[in-house]
Write a structure and sequence with these properties.
The structure holds two protein chains of two kinds.
Chain A: E1 5-6, E2 12-15, E3 18-26, E4 32-33, E5 50-55, E6 58-67, E7 84-91, E8 95-101, E9 114-124, E10 130-138
Chain B: E1 4-15, H1 22-37, E2 46-50, H2 64-71, E3 78-81, H3 87-100, E4 106-113, H4 131-138, H5 143-158, H6 162-176, H7 190-195, E5 198-201, E6 203-204, E7 213-222, H8 223-229, E8 234-243, E9 255-257, H9 266-279, E10 288-290, H10 296-305, H11 314-319, H12 336-340, H13 347-360, E11 373-380, E12 384-391
Parallel strand pairs in B: 2-3, 2-4, 10-11
Antiparallel strand pairs in B: 1-7, 1-8, 4-7, 5-6, 8-12, 11-12
Helix pairs in contact in B: 3-13
Classes of the chains: A mainly beta, B alpha/beta.
Chain lengths: ~140, ~400
């Protein structure tokens, strides 16, 4: 019996409304952060008031690429290596975030296209458990 | 502030040198720079070294103290500067500041590197609090992917084609074949470049600079010293260092704030703007530029970011041959990183050497006619950038 396992704990989760990233937002200047932060780093913000925030699931693809060779450690991937697409996504809630694209055919990706945050496997660990991360899928 | 001049430059050719240490490479560059300046090692008051040794947990890289021990321990101070690939420019700025501020009369600036194999790796820190660790573990996004994402965005905004990207690499090698210090001196066709392996789509192997071993050195001194040494010193008109702004649109870790406008590599634009301000020059006054072409994309984006040309104009300048040494906006008349390969800490000093040779009219077949004002820029991990403006 295998169990899907987050590749890093505490960064994301599935909710009733879809996948979410766990970060922070400053209540004073509204700047979003991912991952979480203890203090606001906006040099124009004079009153750091950081609280927990969730981001996602909808946004637009700012740009994308296909990773044609294995990224060095600590990146994870299954053998044999299969190239994957990467994206920079502007989430509707003001966060620009990087992530893999959950897509079979990268040629279908379009700069400016609508995307949705999902959780999907990056690879498998030695026991066959799926290692889960956040990804984006064309909406 | 005192006027500062570059009076001597030297370089160890770039390549792969299994049998030479980084200290050996620097010895060649320093000896050449001292000879070019017409001074001896005893005349050097201080060393500003571009060092990667202590940054990011890496075990490789230059330590300026080794250079001083190798040249002969005279007791002079060594300033080891760490700023990723911007370290050479950073060391130049510190050397410049020490001379301009009156602390020393003659400073040696040196950078050199023996690079590990493969693409430059990032921090190497295995902690879940480290943004680069998280980016690699959760996404799998190495350095060239950044360039690819920026490049794909440009293609969508301006219609840049794969053939135009390849054309930049072709142009680099048309120039670089004339530079004896360059590692890759063969010409390529557009078909050759398009036939090279795709690395991070849309960027191919010949459109990304490899890593090399190499070293460069520069002797800088006060105006009084310079005039005693030479009748034609090259003057430092501006030297600046900057880091990225909070609202930069390029996420360096996992995420940032969606910016209001197209602000990518704000550190480079800030450094270049400050250096040009110091020089009292407008961007359009620049006769030629040595910019950090880790990838062909930067040769399109940076001149536009800095106001050397208009947004969307870079492809047309390339096609018209205007970025060749004989054109209206010569870019990387050395051949650039694409022809040299990157020896990280050497690069900012390598650029100073090329600017100096160009301004003296010593660049041979790659000479920019009438070069009077040159700009150089580096970019380094951690949101570092430097710029220098040299003039006749």
């Amino acid at each position: 019996m295998t169990t899907p396992t987050p590749v890093v704990e505490g960064l994301f989760a599935d909710t009733d409304g879809g996948a979410r990233l766990y970060g922070s937002r400053c209540a004073n200047c509204s700047v979003p952060y991912f991952p979480r932060t203890d203090t606001c780093r906006n040099p124009d913000c004079d009153d750091s008031r950081i609280g927990d925030a969730e981001f996602g699931p909808t946004g637009r693809l700012w740009s994308y690429s296909v990773q044609n060779y294995p990224s060095p450690p600590p990146a994870v991937y299954d053998e044999p290596y299969v190239p994957y697409a990467l994206g920079v996504v502007d989430l509707d809630d003001g966060l620009r975030v990087v992530g893999r694209m959950d897509v079979d055919d990268p040629a279908a990706l379009e700069v400016g296209g609508a995307v949705e945050l999902v959780l999907a496997p990056l690879s498998h660990d030695d026991d066959g458990n799926e290692l889960i991360s956040w990804m984006f899928r064309p909406a | 502030m005192r006027d500062v001049a570059v009076v001597g430059v030297g370089m160890h050719p770039f390549g792969k040198f299994a049998d030479r240490s980084v200290t050996d490479l620097c010895h060649t560059a320093v000896t050449a720079a001292l000879a070019d300046a017409g001074i001896g090692w005893r005349d050097v008051d201080a060393v500003a070294a571009a060092s990667s040794r202590f940054s990011g947990g890496k075990g490789w890289g230059l330590n300026g103290n080794d250079v001083v021990e190798d040249m002969g321990s005279t007791g002079i101070p060594v300033y080891n500067m760490s700023a990723g690939c911007a370290a050479g420019g950073n060391a130049f700025n510190v050397g410049y500041s020490l001379v301009a501020g009156g602390m020393y009369d003659t400073v040696l600036v040196v950078g050199g590197e023996k690079m590990p194999k493969g693409f430059i790796q990032t921090s190497g820190v295995e902690e879940e609090t480290d943004p680069e660790f998280l980016r690699q573990r959760c996404v799998g996004m190495p350095g060239p992917a950044f360039w690819a994402l920026l490049c794909r965005r440009r293609m969508a905004e301006f219609g840049t084609t794969e053939e135009q990207l390849a054309g930049i690499a072709v142009k680099a090698h048309q120039i670089g074949k004339h530079n004896d210090n360059a590692r890759f001196r063969q010409e390529f066709s557009v078909a050759d470049v398009l036939g090279s392996n795709m690395v991070s789509d849309p960027l191919r192997l010949y459109e990304i600079c490899p890593v090399s071993d190499g070293a460069a050195a520069a002797v800088i001194c006060s105006a009084d010293k310079a005039r005693a040494l030479t009748s034609s010193p090259v003057w430092v008109a501006g030297s600046a260092v900057a880091t990225m702004r909070f609202d930069d649109g390029l996420p360096r870790g996992l995420a940032g704030v969606v910016p209001d406008g197209p602000t990518h590599h704000s550190e480079a634009a800030l450094a270049v703007g400050k250096a040009l301000d110091q020089a009292g020059a407008e961007p359009t006054d620049v006769d030629f530029v040595e910019l950090q072409d880790n990838t062909v994309y930067y040769e399109l984006a940076f001149p536009e970011d800095w106001g050397l040309c208009k947004p969307g104009e870079a492809e047309h300048l390339l096609a018209a041959g205007e970025t060749m040494p004989t054109g209206s906006l010569p870019i990387n008349p050395s051949g650039g990183f694409l022809c040299f390969g990157e020896a990280t800490t050497a690069m900012g000093v390598f650029q100073v050497a090329e600017l100096t040779w160009q301004l003296r009219g010593q660049a041979g077949a790659r000479q920019v006619p009438g070069a009077a004002l040159g700009l150089a820029q580096t970019l380094g991990l951690g949101g570092n950038a430097t710029a220098v403006v040299l003039k006749k």
